[in-house]
Amino acid sequence: MASSAASAAKPHGYVTKGIHWLSILLIGYGYLKGLDSVHQLADPALFRFEVAFALALGLLFALRLFWTQKVGGATRLPKEAPKWEHFASRIVHYGLYGSVFTIVGTGLAIAYGYASPALGDLFINMMITLHEAALTALPLLIIAHICGALWHKFIRRDGVLESMTGKLPI
Ligand code: HEM
Hints:
By secondary structure, the chain is mainly alpha-helical. Helices cover 75% and strands 0% of the residues. It has helices at residues 2-5, 14-33, 44-71, 83-115, 120-156, 160-165.
């Protein structure tokens, strides 16, 4: 029966695909530009840029969540796929959203704490610890996500990878 499932998954729409690939660019850029120390926020131009970048990333992911849940449709994983695949896919997707929202939320809290010294070092240090934990978790989740996509491409051959990439030459 494997052949009937081959390439069966309905493609994601252009908006979902566009947001997906744009968020990859933003996240990649975020890691490349990274800050080495909270004291770099003393530069007002950099401070403004970091806040604007965090807001843009947070809004993009909020829009993405709204769009996939309410308009474009969420996962293309076939209903008849094994339960463990549904479970793994849900955990990784929650993890991806959770770590991005944590990075954005704690990043904004760090900026707020930096601009309001009355909040004290404890607050800012807690936010930095959470920020760094989420920055470590996200690449691990992305690796798991890409392994999942390759699993569908080469083992299941059910069209789930192509639902996001379109037809591939391989
Ligand atoms: C080369 C890298 C990537 C590939 C091949 C890939 C592939 C895919 C595929 C095939 C889907 C559809 C899964 C389904 O319908 O259940 C998907 C969805 C998703 N991808 Fe990726 N992805 C990549 C990178 C990323 C990165 C870096 C993120 C960062 C957060 C990400 C976040 C998501 C999320 C959250 C979904 C769930 C659908 C949504 O809410 O938009 N992906 N991806």
